[in-house]
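Service request form, structural biology core

Requester: graduate student, group of Dr. S.
Request type: structure prediction, single chain
Budget code: on file
Notes: please return the result as C-alpha cells.

Sequence provided:
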Amino acid sequence: MLPTHNHELDLWLEEHAGLGKSFDFLVRHMMIHDHLISLYAVNGLCETRFIMEILDELTGDSDAVPPHMNTWVKNRLIHHSVESTDSKQALVRQVFSGLIAIKVDGEPDCFLIDVRSYPGRQPEEPDTEKVVRGSRDGFVENIIVNTALTRRRIRDPGLRFEMLEVGERSKMDVAIGYIKGLANDELVQVIKKEIEPIKTDGLIMTDKSLEEYIVKQGFNPYPLVRYTERADIAAEHLLEGHVCVYVDTSPSVMITPSTFFHHIQHAEEFRQSPAVGTFIRFIRILGIIASVFLLPLWYLLAIDPGLKPESLEFLGMKEDTAVPLIVQLLIADIGIEFLRMAAIHTPTPLSTAMGLIAAVLIGQIAIDVGLFVPEVILYVALAAIGTFATPSYELSVANKMARVLLMLLVWIFHISGFVIGLTLMLLFLMRIKVFSVPYLWPLVPFRPLALIHVLIRMPVTRSFVRPMIVKTKDRVRQKPSEK
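Core staff response, request fulfilled:
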C-alpha cells in the first residue's frame, strides 16, 4: 500500500529506488488548493511537452476549491492513458518504464500517466531484409512502435498483444502477438507458460536470450524460431496463424512455430510476380545447397579421381602443392569468416577497401606463394556466395558448420564419410521438433501439396488455406472464385 503522506513515500523511494540519489529519478512537489501534489518521473524516458501540458492544467485557475481533490486531479489529467494504483512496487516499475506518477497527499493511491518517449531511431528498412519494391519501415528498439507498425497492417479486432514482464531487475517488456480466432490457443498458452516462470536478472540480449528459454535450443546450431525486422513479414505470419513475440529494445520479432523452409524464404519473392518470385526462390535454394555440399563434393572428387565421370574430368587440381588440400580448404573457408567478422567491426567507409585488399592482395599473393591452388579459391568463393544468399543469418552460420564437418568426414573416410555425414545431417534435422512441429515439414513428413507451395511462389489468388502446421482454428484463407 502507498503511504498516505507524500513525505513517507519520498523516504521509501529514496531507500528502495534511489530518489534524490539517482540524478534521473525526479520528484516535483506542488501546492494546489492547499493540497500537496507530487509528480514522479524519470528524466529521458518521458515526453516533456506532455508533462508541461498536464502541469499547466493542474496549476491553472479554478473557480472554487474542489471538495474531493483526488477526483478533481483525475479530471484535470488531460491524457488518454491514466490508471491508478495503490502499490509502491507498481509505482516504481511503471515510472522506471517511462510513465509519470501523480499523488495527492493524504490519498492512498496515485495516478499513472503514460507519457513515454523512449530514445531511439525512426523506422527504416532493415539492412538484412532489403527489397527492390516494398515498404521501407522496419521494426525499431521501441516495443510500442513495433506493435503499432503491426496493427497498422492488421486492423482485425482479434489482434492481441499480451504484455508480460521478464527479469527480476530489468523488468523487460515482452508482448505475445497473435490473432484471436486464428492462432492455436494451446500454442499461445505454451509460450506464455515458458515465459512466465523465467527467473533471471534480465534479458539484456533481449529476444535471443528469451529464445533459449522458450525453445531449449542447447548446442543445436540450427535456428528454431524465425527472426524478422520487417513489419509486413510479421503481419503476414500473424494472418497465417503464427504467434509473434515482441521484446522491448529489440528490432527483431520472433515468429513461432517455424520450420527449416521458413528460413529460406525472403520478402523479395513476394514483391515480384509469381514467375519471377519462383525463379528467385529456385536460385536461392540452389545457392543454399551449394553452400553446404559444393566444397565437400569437390574435395571428394579431387582426392578420389576415380569417382569422376568423363564429363567432369576438368574438376580437381591442375597443379600439385605442398600444403594438403584439406588444410587449404579449411584456411580459405575460415578466412572468409574472418573477413565477415572484420567487415562487421570495420566502419562502413573502410569495409569496401578492406574487401578489395583481401580479395586482390591476399588471395592473389596466397596463390603466387603456393599456399592455395586457384581451384580452392574458386570453389570456396562459390560456397561463400551461397552462404551470403541465405536469407537467415542464423541458418547460414549453421550450414557453414555443417559444411566444415562434412569436409572433415570426407577427409577421414572419403566417399563413406560423405554418405555418413549426409545421412547424419538429415537424421539430425528430422529429429528436431519446435512446439511439436517437425523441422523439415513438409518434406518430412511428406506433404506434396504443401511442398509445392514451399518450392513455388504461388499466386496470391491461389492461396486458399493457411499452413496446417500452425493448427489454426480457421484454415480457410479465402474462398475460391466462383467464376
